[in-house]
Specification:
Elements lengths: L2 E16 L4 E10 L5 E4 L7 E6 L5 E3 L2 E3 L3 E12 L16 E9 L4 E8 L2 E6 L11 E8 L3 E8 L7 E14 L2
Antiparallel strand pairs: 1-2, 2-3, 3-4, 4-5, 5-6, 7-13, 8-11, 8-13, 9-10, 9-12
Length: about 180
């Protein structure tokens, strides 16, 4: 029998993605079972209990769903890049697909930013910012969905010569969360 150490008079909203509905669940009780495991009860009558644990990255797991902190994928600062070539030395993949990658970028040159998406042997070029130039010395944030079996990289299109150099002031990519 679980020992309840805190029972709330009013349920509180959580930001936990829980179950197939991925709704904001209402917590009713938190308890510790006979093995010392933390248990969350989400049902209005204290039922529907789920064990809380952490994975190898320290993310909170409720049942089999993860409350995952953003995972840093890459961070570059003040790097010289060449027109129309891959910016990253290796492609990025989702660690828990499908995932949302949040990209923060700023360049010293006006240019178009492309996502290079590869699935198997097929590669697609996707223009960010609706195909419009990113302005010099301006910061931009983009969200990109990366599915299972896909990898992505980035290219800066300046003039298409493959020789023009620009400075990538900052590029950060985080894997925000599993969206499946």
């Amino acid at each position: 029998m679980a020992e309840t150490f805190n029972r709330f008079k009013k349920p509180f909203k959580s930001t936990v993605i829980y179950g197939e509905d991925a709704a904001n669940e209402l917590f009713r009780a938190i308890s510790i079972d006979s093995n010392g495991k933390l248990i969350v009860s989400t049902g209005f009558d204290g039922t529907n209990t789920q064990m809380i644990k952490t994975d190898e990255y320290g993310r909170i797991i409720i049942g089999n769903k993860s409350l995952k902190d953003p995972l840093g994928k890459v961070s570059l600062f003040n790097e010289r890049i060449t027109d129309s070539t891959d910016i990253l030395t290796s492609d990025l993949t989702a660690s828990d697909p499908p995932s949302l990658f949040r990209i923060y970028v700023a360049f010293d040159t006006e240019l178009k930013l492309q996502v290079v998406r590869t699935v198997g042997t097929d590669t697609l070029i996707e223009l960010l910012n609706e195909g419009n130039n990113l302005l010099q010395d301006s910061a931009y944030i983009f969200d990109i969905i990366v599915d299972d079996g896909e990898s992505i990289n980035f290219r800066a299109y300046i003039d298409g010569t493959g020789t023009t150099i620009a400075v990538l002031k900052k590029l950060s990519v985080i894997e925000k969360f599993n969206i499946g």
